[in-house]
Structures are given as C-alpha cells and as structure tokens.
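quick one, 240 residues, struct below
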Amino acid sequence: MTRFGWFGMCWMMLCLGDVHASGRLQAALISSADKAMAPRIVPVLHGREYLVQEDVLHVPDALPLGSQWGIYRPGRSFPLTEHDHVEGEPADGPFWGMLPVARATVIGHATLGSQLSIEDGIQEVRAGDYLLARTETPSSFSEMKKTAAEPPVSTARVVGGLYKQHYLAPQDWLVLDRGTRDGLAAGQRWRIDRNVLGQPAVAEIEVHQAAMHLSLARVLSGEGPIQTGDVAQWIPSHEK
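---
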C-alpha cells in the first residue's frame, strides 16, 4: 500500500460502493466492553504515524497463528437511553461504530505478542487501531434473506452516521435506534421517505448488523440526503 494524499484518501472512500458486492471488510457496531477487550496495534520502532503494507504489525496479545482479522478505527459512539436499560442489570456503556481500515493475518509470535501482515486496506493503518474478528458481507442478498423476517416494529429512527456528518448519502453507514429486541436482523431493507425543498426524496437502507438496542445499516440508494432523526419504514419482502 502506498502513502495516500488527502485526494487519494477521499477517492478510496468513494470507491467503497463496490464493497458490498466484493465481500470486502464491512463496518461494525460493538459495545464499549468489546472495544475495551479488542487487541490494539502498537507503534513501530521508528515511530511513524502511519503503517504501510510492507510493515509488520505488532499487538501485545497472543493470537492464533494464521488467524485473520479486520483492522478498525472508532468512528463515533452511540449512547443507550434509559428506555434501553434493563432494570436490575448494570448499565451498558455506549456502542461504537467501527470503520474498516484493512485486513491482516497473524504471521508469527514474539516475546511481547503477535505479528501480523497487512493483506489489503481501505486506508493506511495507524498505531492504536483495533483488531476485530473479520466480518464480511455475503456476496449476494439472497444469502442473507433467510434472516430478514418481518420485524414486530415497522419504523426505526436514524440515530446518526459513523462519522459526525450532518447528511448521509449512498454507501454511508448509519445507526438505527432499533435492534434485535425489536426484530431487526441483517438483510432487512428499510425505506426513508422525506421532503427536500418541497420534493419527495426516497432512500433505501439495508441492515448489516443488529445489536439488542441498535442496528448498523448501509445506505443503498437515495434521491436526497438522509439526516439524524429521519424515520425508516420496513420494506416487506414482496416489495423488494
């Protein structure tokens, strides 16, 4: 991987439109507890801020030789509300939207942990990035539709994007305020209808991952910008 300038980085992010079809690394939604336990990449000896494909990555954890990992960077946090808290159980911390950076494989072990090589990447790896078990989307929606049963709720609200952007467009990731407790599951498609400058604007999103109270989805298409607070409606399978 070569060193990208700002223009190159933006171009790579725009190219993520093919990520769903190619089976590349996807974004993730994890709890604060899981984030605290995830292995983190330590700085290399020469102290560069960014690491390139030729660099050997180091983590202080003993990982299985040959195991494959996704490298992620935290986007933003999504706190749970009082409504989401179960009485008698300890309060959960916020969930984190994790943005994909690269894929890596464990190639060896050292005294202080494990060594990994970078396979490919969306952007350059940094010291402090997190390792998560690799999660890839199936190459076709048909592989997921068996999980896309009708949810008991018919609407969900957009909590926000994984960046703190005001508007969301096709291929952006977003979080919904409903999860498995409400019947949301990977593969479900939802529609957002809104009015932009007096004109109807329709966007379609697909759930990629569902936690108990929140879900991670990706914008598949849209005629106008999506923003925090927009309401999504479930699309029955016969309408897809």
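The radius of gyration is 19 Å.
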